[in-house]
Amino acid sequence: MSVITTQRVGDILVIISDNPPVNALGHAVRAGLAAAISEAAGDDGIKAVVIRCDGRTFFAGADITEFGKPPLAPSLPDVVDAIEQCPKPVVAAIHGTALGGGLEVALGCHYRIVVPSARLGLPEVKLGLLPGAGGTQRLPRVAGVADALSMIVTGDPVDAARAMEIGLVDRLAGADTLAEDAIAFARDVAARAGHPVSSLRTDRIAEAANHPQVFDKFIAENARRLKGFDAPKACVEAVRAAVDRPFDEGIRLERELFMKLVSGTQSKAMRHLFFAERQAAKIDGIPADTPMIDIARVGILGAGTMGGGIAMNFLSAGLPVTLVEREQAALDRGVATIRKNYERTAARGRMTAEQVEAAMVLLTPTLAYEDLADCDLVIEAVFELMEIKKEVFRRLDAIVKPGAILASNTSYLDIDEMAAETKRPEAVVGLHFFSPANIMRLLEVVRGARTSPSVLKTVMALAKKIGKIAVVSGVCPGFIGNRMLRPRQTEAQKLLLEGASPWEVDVALTEFGFPMGPFQMADLAGLDLGWTAEGSTSSTIREVLCERGRRGQKTGSGFYDYDDNRRGSPSPETEAIIAEFAAKSGAPQRKFSTDEIRERLLYPMINEGAKILEEGMAQRASDIDIVWLNGYGWPAFTGGPMFWADTIGLKTVLDGLERQADALGPDFTVSALLRRKADAGENFN
Ligand code: 3HC
Ligand code: NAI
Predict the structure, then answer these.
(1) N or C: which end of the chain has fewer CB within 10 A?
(2) Is pLDDT above 90 for 208?
(3) 298-479 and 500-585 share one CATH topology?
(4) Architecture of domain 4-262 in CATH?
(5) Does ligand 1 lie within 6 Å of residue 76's CB atom?
(6) Domain spanning 298-479: which superfamily?
(7) Which residues contact 532 (CB under 8 A, 6 or more apart)?
(8) Quick one: DSSP state of residue 75?
(9) Strand arrangement of the beta sheet that strand 158-159 belongs to
(10) pLDDT tens for residues 494-509?
């Protein structure tokens, strides 16, 4: 059956798309739409047209899988033009998400009607692109420059209510009556004399034409978001053209910018990440009919930094949580922190007071392990010591009902050792959240040797429910993320002894696109994590910094000196401490270029990533990219470590590692997989 069908309802032609899963505007859809519009235009019996979609959503955009392939006519811009030029009024009937090319189709229509749950947006920037079917020119003309600029540059959608407010949609349909309401709306407008044509409108752009500084102001306010990315700058340039230039010229510029971006490395990298994120949710070798375990109540053990944050994820998703601590004071502190975090969110207007109470009422704090008995999933977030973890698993196994899942938030420890303490090793899994756990989107799901498919499938679905991006890892120290962080940290420390300064090392990474370098990160986290004055022996740079009261941002100094606004500057005291250690180490001192520092820090990470792959600890290279992007701030426009390695060439990485062999030391070994692929001219992805 064709993906586009038409139905006549009296003198209205209803055009229906049915192209699961998301009605992407692939070639067949575009061709069908163009033919149906031409049918309506040529038929005197038709007075108005409705375009709607079957399935879960209105058109969610161009078909991303077609990018980079030879274009097939009709192009999306041509289809949108044809809709706009149709002599009969065309109504877009929107449910689900009208995104990218989908919203551009809707903007080509003369009217838009939406269900209250609909969301509309131009997310192209998240794929390293700009809207390429007239969106940058039509959205400002319909919704005004300020809102268009923000929607196009952030890529974030607006809901139906906001879309009404800014004039992007004309009418709200009933939640379940979109098809009928759209036909009724089409009948109304058919009787009108003239119809709004988005490309001809000037009313919403007039004000910005008189205040061109709105663009410079926007760029200044969003400098951090724009840094390193090509697409947002192109988005601003195109929207500016909507104000400065006639429509046709604006469209020409939009096309030119789109073609440049779509063939560039940044967009390739970001498209890779789009599919990588969806791929990560899939677990190889799990049959589709694997049953899931119903999770109605979650138990959390330990109300410290992680336990509290983990609890918030479930509370926010409406799942009741039983939170257990070993002493009242810690429990009270944990609960107070959860409340404070919610209240801070409410104060910023991102939650209502009622939502705060609704979340808190789902929380049951207690000191009794026995209260965990009826939980379907218990996650322990107690101290990172194997003996304590084992004891905890023995106790949980005895108390928590049969069939329930027992999970650990450990950062490094062996899940299989914990599982061995229980009579249900198949129900034991690692759920490694990242700090702050209520905010960071990454979740490493650690698959033990005996973890059952059912448990894995359940936790992957649960991760999606609480808004996390889950990636499956095998059992190895540090799993995927922290295991790859280790060589980077080791080399960063060694570089200090060889003559590089912390600020040079940090700048090499921030210029690459990381939000922070390793020493800025250490200062933020606190240098005294795991440090005590009594146990300190002045044997590392870090210990001496702590001994001198330089414990990171919180004490006003660490590797850096901090001002009252927590802005760091290079510290002569730190330099002197490092110089002493360097002299003691006897390492020859020299200058390092930014490129050399980057190679030294990043190539060993790629090498570790390759080992993770060859050992089967990650299912696929793209999963590693997703971990580093969402857990450690690896810059999205490079596609993640493994994609970046493919981009620069695995031979380049291998040559770099071999060149640096002396500095990397005798313990460093090149991954066999990396060597094989580099020699064969292959990629990871
Ligand atoms: N093209 C091709 N495939 C797409 C797609 C698209 N635009 N959007 C989604 N898919 C695929 C996904 O890869 C996934 O495939 P899989 O099942 O094989 O893994 C499947 O559709 C379902 O997608 P999700 O798992 O993401 O489903 P959700 O229900 O969670 O989310 C969505 C639905 C909100 C529509 C989300 O898929 C999404 O954000 N899609 C992308 C939207 C987008 O970026 N549109 C702009 C495209 S660029 C463009 O339009 C250029 C134009 O200006 C010229
Ligand atoms: P934390 O020290 O802030 O909290 C641990 C809490 O557990 C304390 O409140 C303590 O009173 C409680 N506790 C200890 N033993 C207990 C027991 N037997 N029963 C009940 N409660 C008990 O530690 P944090 O940072 O929250 O770490 C917890 C776990 O999460 C560790 O395994 C750690 O490796 C892991 N983790 C930590 C991350 C971080 O950035 N802090 C990131 C990811 C994982």
Answers:
(1) N
(2) no
(3) no
(4) Alpha-Beta Complex (3.90)
(5) yes
(6) NAD(P)-binding Rossmann-like Domain (3.40.50.720)
(7) none
(8) P
(9) 97-99, 119-121, 158-159
(10) 999 999 999 999 999 9
